[in-house]
Amino acid sequence: MTSIPRRATLMAATCLAMIGPIVAPLAASAQEAPLPRITVTGEGEVATVPDMATISLGITAENAEAGAAMDEASRVAEALLARLDEMGIAARDRQSSDISLRPVWSGGNDGVERGITGFEAGNRLTVRVRDLDRLGEVLGAVLDDGANQLSGLTFGLQEPKPVMQDARRAAVADAMDKAKVLAEAAGVALGPVISIAEAGGGYAPAPMMEMARASAVPVAAGETVISTQVTMVFELGDAAE
Questions:
Q1: Among the listed residues 190, 139, 141, 198, the one whose alpha carbon sits nearest the alpha carbon of residue 168
Q2: Strands across the sheet with 115-129, in order?
Q3: Do residues 229 and 41 lie in contact, with contact meaning Cβ atoms separated by under 8 Å?
Q4: Which domains are present in the chain?
Q5: How far does the signal peptide extend, from start to end residue (predicted)?
Q6: pLDDT-derived band of residue 209, with 50, 70 and 90 as boundaries?
């Protein structure tokens, strides 16, 4: 019987010891391979009646002198703020968003030399109206007091969080419904949720419903829509029975 040299025996044992730790993780990873997954996106939206409006007003004044133009625009702005005080619009709901002064040019055609003939001063004011029943009244008052630009009117909610929560619930329900239908169509079982991510949400105006006149300015009463999206990842099981 041929004997194996001691050195060869030690080398074989060493090789086995080195291979063992490598083979074990490979076997474990093969056993723990992730199950198939499915990713779906759900959408949810909730329409509700707005309870706040934001108005963007503008004041412009022209004069041959820059200082006089700015003084006139400032005078009208002060009158508007005083009127808003009288109407109970809180200071936190009024903000000057832009003050400008630019030259007014003329000429440049038919050989007439182009030059500055005056200056235009501007003052922009953003106002939040929390009582929509008075929105038309507020608009009429500021226009009567000298505002000569109306660049925006948007509706929103003073407390949007509860409505946004309802939109999130609707988005998750929509995603789960889609996942169930897809899994059923594929003939597999729908497993647990692996992850949920929100894609973001926002406001959108709904179609106007009726027109009501308050003071000199008509105001349309409609709805505000809050929407959001969620992306959900589900694990898929074996073929459904």
A1: 198
A2: 94-106, 115-129, 52-63, 149-156
A3: yes
A4: 34-48+161-239 (3.30.110.170), 52-156 (3.30.70.2970)
A5: 1-30
A6: very low
Provide the whole-model pTM.
Answer: 0.67
Q: Are 127 and 84 in contact (CB under 8 A)?
A: yes
Q: Of 182, 193, 186, 189, which Cα lies nearest the Cα of 237?
A: 189
Cβ atoms of 122 and 100 closer than 8 Å: yes
Least confident of 33-42, 44-53, 78-87, 168-177: 33-42
Q: Which residue do the tokens 């030259």 mark?
A: 103
Q: CA angle 235-240-241, nearest 5°?
A: 150
Q: Return the structure tokens found at 180.
A: 């169930």
